[in-house]
Amino acid sequence: MADHRTENLARILVEHSARIAEGDRVLIEATTLSKDLVQELFKQILDAGGHPYVGMQLPEYRELLFGHGNQEQLRHVNELRAYAYENFESRIRIQADVNTKATSGVDPKRQTLKMEAEAPILRKQFRRGETGEFKWVSTMYPTQAYAMQASMGFEEYKDFFFRAAHTNEEDPVEYWKQIKV
Predict the structure, then answer these.
(1) Half-sphere exposure of 71 toward its Cβ, with a 13 Å CA cutoff?
(2) Which of 41, 17, 45, 19 is nearest to 179 (CA)?
(3) Which of 38, 65, 89, 180 would be 24's cystine partner, CB 3.0–4.6 Å?
(4) Nearest to residue 168, comparing CAs of 9, 1, 48?
(5) Which among 5, 45, 148, 31 is positioned nearest to 97, based on CA atoms?
């Protein structure tokens, strides 16, 4: 049975943050650690009339890429991601790391190669987001790694996270609508 807080987090992301509408193509970027939220997002995007596309990665993908990828592979642009950022109406990204220090030992030059390759995609996100033609949101999802980084037990961290996201509100979407930036 799904945690009602995960369902409410998905509602916040779909109805408020990304404002998914009928016909919207939505890229969901996540790791397998956030499977429960991805599944709930998928259902709610369908219910909103949208078309969810899941870009699921292993939690260790960055470690694997930096540990095994050559310079050409680090410079390679994710063409599926680039297409979505240029053509889709929305993107929801979920950070769910297995190791928050996974890339701390990676040569900064290798990290720079990857960042330079990804820069045009991010520029598209910001350019299209500024005009309102691309609705994007990023969030985290509780993992053991985040709990350890916060010096908390996993259940304690999950409670903290979901309280901070106001998923226990009577109507969490309405709560967030009242918050003005």
Answers:
(1) 2
(2) 17
(3) 89
(4) 9
(5) 31
